[in-house]
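User: Could you check the structure of this?
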Amino acid sequence: MAKLTLIGGGAMARAVARILVSSGVDVHVYARDTTRVEEVDGIVVHEEMGPAVEGANLVFLAVPADNLLEAAEQYGEFARGDHVVLTATRGVTDRFMLPHEMIRAMTCVRKIGYLGGPIHARELATGRQINLVLASRFGEVIDAIRGLTKGTPIALHKSSDVVGVEVAGAIANVGSIASGLAAALDLGDTARGVLLTHGLVDATRLGVALGATASTFSGLAGVGELIPRNVTSMDRHVDLGRRIAEGEALADALVRVDGHVEGVKTAEEAVKAAERLGLELLLVPAVHEILHGRADPRVALEAVLHRSLDLDNAVAR
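Assistant: Sure, the predicted structure tokens are below.
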């Protein structure tokens, strides 16, 4: 029986634990706050990293982007080169460092898989079939996760484009902030759709410049992730956008929003990355300027709406 260690006690970790325990996987969890995961029957909860990881075949770093480097560093003390490591973190850190790059920087692990596409904790908890993208450069990772999820409601779609799937996931949160801004400003559903499509174009341009494959952004990991549904992680970002459009300062809004809002950091680092790479992005810089009070929300979004959406040349500068 496979042993999976989940690092993190949030909604994603709990949802994954429930699904895999029910299919016979030996699930162990390390979390700072063990009270949140003790409610999941059948798992083994640890207060220390070492015992949680010992003997594990797979490790899932189920933490937000702003905690991933620290969690990877802690795990790195116990990591083995033959571990298969997963993450579904949607966000970046300084210099647009992507999740798999954070894990590589802090551990000896190279067999890394990234879960992207429309996978969210609330949907995982429903018991209905969930379609997600598993991105990895290692066939061993794909095989291991397919074996782990066999007989569960999880349907895997494989990809070798780790960079593209991660960029799509990160920029999707920026698009959700724009969606919240548009809703509060009553710009209408058509405008919201156009803004989200601009987000898709921005993600494609940035991803391709970083080595991604353009076709990734037209599939489940791109359109499936960047055109949001009503899901928990996006609720937070939409809520933040609404609050900013209604006049709250960013610092105050972040205090009031329930949970991590990785899209704020992603927007900032994406703007910097685009400048380094000589790329023109439209929606992401507008959202960044709005968040930091340097642009009027309505004026900035309407300026984006008036720009041409040349989807045939989405990767052009």
